Amino acid sequence: MSSVADRRNQQIWDAIENDNLKQALQLCTKRLRKGERGDYLLALKAHVLALSVSCGHNDEGFADAHALALKDPPVTDVEVLRLLQLALSNLEARGRYNTKESITKLWERAIKAKPGDEALAREWFLKTFQDRDWRNTQKAAMSLQKTYSKKREYYFWAVLSSYLLYSWPGATESEKKLFGALAYRMISKAASDVPDDPKILLSPGRAIQTPHELHLLLSVYRQQGYRPEALAILNSDNLGTRSTVAKGDWSFVRQKIELLEEQELWESEWDFCKMLLDEAFPGDSEDKTGENSTPPDAKGDDWRIWQGFLTAAWKIDTEENRKSTIDRIQSSVGQSRPSRNARLALLDYLAKIPQTGQPAQGPLDLLSACNQYFGSFATKTCCFDDIRCYVEALEPSQRKGYLEHIRQFTEQMVKDDLSDEKLRAASVAASINVLKFDYLVNLSLPTDPAPSTEVGDFVGSCVGLYKSSLTLGSELEPTDNQHGDDACILAVMGLVRLAGPLSEGRASARSRGYLLQAAALLEFLVSRSRHNFQALLLLVRLYGLLGAYTLAMETYPRLTIKQIQNDTLAHNIFSRISTLHPYQAVGINHLEKGDRDPSLGLLKALMVYEKSATQVPDLAKMALEKGSFDQVEGFLEFADKVRNSICKVMWTVERRRIARLVRTKTSSLDRPDFDHICMESLSIAFFRIADAIGAPSIYGLVAYNIGCNDLDPLPDDITDNRDYEVMINCEGSDHPRFEEYVRLGPKPTTQWARAFHSSEEFSLYLARYSSSQVPLEDRQRILQSVEHVFYELSRTLSAGDEVLNKDLTTSEKSFIEIQALLAEELTLILGAGLNLRDIVTDSLQRVVLKIDERLSSFQAAEDLVKGFQGLDIKSNGGSNSDRLLACIPDWTFLHESYMTLQTLISLSAYTKHLETTTATTVTATSGKSSKSGGGSSGIPKNATVVAKQRVESLYQAIRARASKIKNQFSESGVVGALVDGGFGRDAVGEDAGAIGEKIEELVGEAWMEGFVGRVVESWLEGLDGVLRVKVNLD
Questions:
Q1: Confidence class of residue 739 from pLDDT cuts 50, 70 and 90?
Q2: Where is the sequence biased in composition, kind Low complexity (predicted)?
């Protein structure tokens, strides 16, 4: 049974877990007042105080923890030490305390007090390792290996910790020199202790015995530039690639090739790789025909071996070596069982080394080799990606010849397999590869864009192939993709090409019509292949482009992206989501709340970073304890990438912008201390309550709280882990990837992150002080913060349009310009002291003038409505579909609307802040308050009227535009007209009509009506979102 103290301690922990810190502190204080004493209770109280948001509590917690750290006799209980370190670490995170020295002294004094306690010393080492405190990690490791010298793991921990300290960017030059040399000497000693005779199984305790320890040796050597020594190790009998220590780990072979290349030992590399290839194809020397040759060995037939072999051959470049190289390749190609890597090596050789003669086996040229490769791998999905670069290397006329050859080859396959379903499926796979090469050669590579008729024919061929393949697949599982899915995706790629490049805006009816057709094809595809990742990913993008973001949010969960994959793939749904669909989707209630609520979805994605901050160090610790030193390095590198991820910054910005847009217009939200009484952890609970009882006011309250919490500092070294290459791509290597044609605006990079992080800092200031004065004691600190914001925003804008257009949309750039202007004006106001009248009046005039200059970017109220006055959408035939498609609320409409609303919210908060700042100003001479309009320090009541009027007119213009479009798409006959557009019935151009007919034959009119109806519902929901945003103009 647990003791009374344990049960009482558990009560405190339960209160902490329930975020009831007040109760936890009361329980601690009550026990202490009763005279109960003990290091654990005191440390627990310090931990509670460290978790508090109160600065006074933090100071008290720091004092208590610091006193315990210096207590005499020292604290030696491991549980108390852990708790004290946790409390001090939490205080360090507040940014007001420097606790690293206290933590170090805490453990050093404990170990000194109990020098024979191995568990205590080991615990200190592991804690410093998890905290990445490399200086103390090295110190603790050396202490362990000296005190417990018979334990070999501590010796290698000392090597690793010295190596990590050497590699740490924060280490000084003297530290690098000292600990780099120490790691080298220690690991070299371990290598020298390995017996020369590999038959001797027993070796000294500190000798290298495992592949992981050998990896550590190579890392230490290579990091410090000891490449010849590392190569000598891999050439040795006792530690080389074939040694008993290496245990057949193929990574050592790859490392040896890398070392040979780094030292430019081309002859040695060629000999080494040839030896491995000879072993992989042992039948070549006796039988050149390949009839009796053995299949290639899986390891020796490694593409890295072939790469090293060819790289060395190109560097050597002698007649004799060329002949030996081509003989080796051709003899491998001649195997009865074709080697994919050998054929690729032949293609690589022919593409890069000039032809010097004709071999015995016939003409040797790149075109023939491409034809042969397709003949061997035509039915494989890897065929296109394997040889696309070699097809690009052909002359234009040769590409046409290649395309004609593979068409004939595939046509013969189709003739031969009419009765066998498996053969028919193989012919479909080969036909898809032909279409991929057709796309590359005829649509992507030509300098001049392909005629729309040619692209239309290509789309028609793809749709036809997909339709014919639907009769196959009787052997497939429900989770499998259909045989012809890629043909449908290729048709979609062709339609996206017909829609035109992003630079042209895709504002025409036909462009949007093609995108609608593309989305229809993909939706039809995923109704049969529910788990086709490529189709689902592309469909998310297309729905986003069309402005049907509810459908994008419904499709995205089907990708089943898990955990850390969010860091690489979540950008497909969350990039700019606050300006596309900030509200909870109402039409997809069958999904989990986190999948239909963008704010909760972003929180879910952000939780990945919180989890990785604890899980990755734990995994690194486990790898360390198991002696997997190479994995330790991998985990540490991974942790660095995730910790500084640009997505973490982006999702934080998006979530805060959503909070401002969805906030309710309630006076309670304007309390200046609101951000001090709620925490992020409470947000989840409030969201659940709001969802359960249907209370939007709670939703808005919590959303506002998110926007008021402090921002984490921006990382100095932002990493980008987003994966843009996962999407299918058939474009030429010198052309933009296909993914770029379906992006929703420019790719946000570090510049975007820095600009909007600074903008959020400024918005935080406006949110906190829109209804209250800046305290005089905080004025200088806040002035410095706003000056920093202005500096960062100005630096972004100074990059010029050419650079900005690669990161920011036009609306985002305009928003940043306004934010920079407001920040500049506030620096003047905050630095003005008490006499604000003239400065505020002048500031408002400058702001109004600047807004007038930028109104063209947002469109004036008259222009916003005027463009729709002549639009009369009725179900009366003619060009209804084109007229509808021309005014759909696509992503550009939503993005411009929400970004403009964000701007208006900032402008409204700014004018309100000016009124608050000058409404009650205490004069320096009388000490009396002067109300607005009275006294020399106040400003006239109408000083902010012009700015407010400008905000009001633009706000009403945005609403008028959204309301007009909503009314038009709510009329009867809209679905029918758009179905006609989807089938190209009233489109201009033969290609559009022909494509529409193909699509109609595939999906049918009833299915198309259901699809279009859902798209229209999504558009109406998106327009409702724009109309729901409230800008506080009071």
A1: very high
A2: 921-931
